[in-house]
């Protein structure tokens, strides 16, 4: 039963992932659609960041938010992405332990 | 394959693989603690080490695996778990369509495995390295990037199931911000270059936030991404990659 659930979950996850490989192989998109697809990564990043970041510590949404603000500042200063990530982790760690 | 051989460029297979692994390290940093936490939770939910590792091997979608393990623990029916997984992971269809469109001209035998390696994180990182699609041996860059992320996830979840909570709770909770920080670290440099990218992202955030009040989280992210992307049709210049 457990394996059936896992295989079912795998199929409904894999099919939406690989079907587009066949679509772009067969169909040429109009210009507006290419632009739309080029904008998708930026839109996806926005939707993935907010409001999810508020749930880093679900009972204290400001902690995730502050971690995010530190990440924005560090990234804006041009720091390497690993340092941005470590800076945000350190901020949340300090806020939750203090 | 339509890769061109350009004299003197150092983009050999080996250098592209090295670049791919280096680029994948922030994902690894974010995945390991979450994968370990998943392994711990799934073990507590009653999955065996083999089952919880196979879920990472086959499903490879963090949020859905947490949800799935949680639902298994509650004794939810198989159909309900599978439908909820579909809804939560449908955003990958939109992401894959975007990434595969960038890989036009690359052989299907590369595109299909690369598409299976797409997650929120590998998609975001790979898309912001879109220039590699046109480089010599660029497919090796993407393959190495995706394998780095995939192996971190699979190994991390197995470790979590085997060893249990090896990371102290305050630290693992703090590391929950890692992937959000990575998304921010990817977005901010693009916004610095082109403010309009920030507009697309902020509209997607707001739409996601509004819809998340009414529909399942999975659909809210899809709607936010699709509508945010539509804004791009009006604000992006021609051939802006």
UniProtKB/TrEMBL annotation, chain A:
Keywords noted in UniProt: Membrane, Transmembrane, Transmembrane helix
Taxonomy, superkingdom: Bacteria
Any Pfam family hit: AzlD
The regions listed as transmembrane in this protein's record are 37-56, 63-95
Q: Does the keyword Transmembrane apply?
A: yes
- InterPro entries per UniProt: Brnchd-chn_aa_trnsp_AzlD
- Per its record, how is this protein called by name? AzlD domain-containing protein
Source species taxonomy: Bacteria, Bacillati, Bacillota, Bacilli, Bacillales
UniProtKB/TrEMBL annotation, chain B:
- Superkingdom of the organism of origin: Bacteria
Q: Which UniProt keywords apply?
A: Cell membrane, Membrane, Transmembrane, Transmembrane helix, Transport
This entry carries the following GO cellular component terms, namely:
plasma membrane
Record GO biological process: L-valine transmembrane transport
The protein's location, in the record's own words, is: Cell membrane
InterPro entries assigned: Brnchd-chn_aa_trnsp_permease
Membrane-related topology note: Multi-pass membrane protein
Positions of transmembrane segments: 20-41, 72-94, 140-164, 170-188, 195-212, 218-236
Record Pfam families: AzlC
Q: Per the similarity annotation, which family is this?
A: Belongs to the AzlC family.
Protein name per the record? AzlC family ABC transporter permease
Q: Write down the species.
A: Aquibacillus koreensis
């Amino acid at each position: 039963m457990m394996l059936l659930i896992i295989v079912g979950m795998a199929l409904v996850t894999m099919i939406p992932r690989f079907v587009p490989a066949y679509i772009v192989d067969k169909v040429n998109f109009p210009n507006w659609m290419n632009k739309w697809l080029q904008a998708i990564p930026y839109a996806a990043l926005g939707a993935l960041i907010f409001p999810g970041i508020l749930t880093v510590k679900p009972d204290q949404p400001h902690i995730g938010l502050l971690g995010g603000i530190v990440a924005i500042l560090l990234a804006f200063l041009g720091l390497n992405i690993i340092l941005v990530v470590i800076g945000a982790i350190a901020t949340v760690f300090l806020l939750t332990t203090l | 394959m339509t890769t061109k051989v350009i004299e003197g460029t150092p983009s050999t297979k080996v250098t592209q693989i090295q670049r791919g692994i280096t680029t994948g390290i922030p994902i690894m940093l974010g995945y390991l603690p979450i994968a370990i936490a998943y392994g711990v939770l799934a073990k507590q939910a009653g999955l065996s080490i083999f089952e919880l590792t196979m879920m990472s091997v086959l499903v490879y979608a963090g949020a859905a695996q947490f949800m799935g393990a949680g639902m298994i623990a509650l004794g939810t029916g198989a159909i309900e778990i599978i439908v909820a997984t579909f809804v939560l992971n449908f955003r990958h269809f939109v992401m894959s369509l975007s990434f595969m469109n960038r890989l036009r001209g690359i052989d299907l035998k590369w595109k299909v495995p690369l598409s299976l390696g797409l997650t929120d994180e590998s998609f975001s990182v790979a898309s912001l390295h879109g220039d590699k699609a046109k480089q010599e041996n660029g497919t090796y860059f993407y393959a190495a990037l995706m394998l780095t992320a995939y192996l971190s996830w699979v190994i991390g979840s197995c470790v979590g199931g085997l060893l249990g909570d090896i990371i102290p709770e305050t630290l693992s909770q703090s590391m929950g911000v890692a992937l959000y920080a990575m998304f921010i670290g990817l977005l901010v440099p693009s916004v610095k270059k082109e403010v309009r990218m920030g507009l697309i992202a902020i509209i997607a955030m707001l739409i996601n936030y509004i819809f998340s009040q009414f529909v399942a989280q999975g659909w809210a992210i899809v709607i936010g991404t699709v509508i945010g992307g539509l804004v791009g049709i009006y604000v992006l210049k021609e051939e802006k990659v």
